[in-house]
Design goal:
The chain is of the alpha+beta class. It has five helices and five strands. It has a five-stranded mixed beta barrel with strand order 1-2-3-5-4. Strand 1 and strand 2 form a beta hairpin. Helix 2 runs antiparallel to helix 3. It is rod-shaped and about 80 Å long. It starts with a helix and ends with a strand. InterPro entries: Membrane_assoc_protease (IPR052165), NA-bd_OB-fold (IPR012340), NfeD-like_C (IPR002810). It holds the Pfam family NfeD. Keywords: Membrane, Transmembrane, Transmembrane helix.
Amino acid sequence: MLEWLNLHIAYWHWLVLGLLLVTAEIFVSGFILFWFGLAALAIGVLLMLVGIPITAQLLLWAGLSVALVLLWLKFIKPNWKDRTTSGMAMEALTGQVGSVIESNIGRPRGRLRFPAPILGEDEWQFMSTSEIAIGERVKVLNISGNTLVVSPL
């Protein structure tokens, strides 16, 4: 079996495997297959430069894959900030109280500021059914797109 693999596995097989694994990451959560695919791509590039027996190829791929996953989990992922706030905006903003810094009098929208940044921003655009003057405090009731729906306190 190993002799057959030695004769028939070429560098492009590893490149194809790597691309398939990296592409499969789109359909699987966890960001793990990506590292196995990246290791397969590295083995494919290495095989283009030097000939390596299939046993060494498999060991290198497994070792490099595990090393990349551990590197990801230990050093990169903890410092990786998820800047997407999808699914969190409603809970984080509803009920918050801010001060109006641009009135919506005569306009459909105004601008408010929170005492501390919420979801990375301390100033947000708002709309309300009532006209609200500068300096008034408002409470967030809902979110419509990127605009807060507020009511005066």
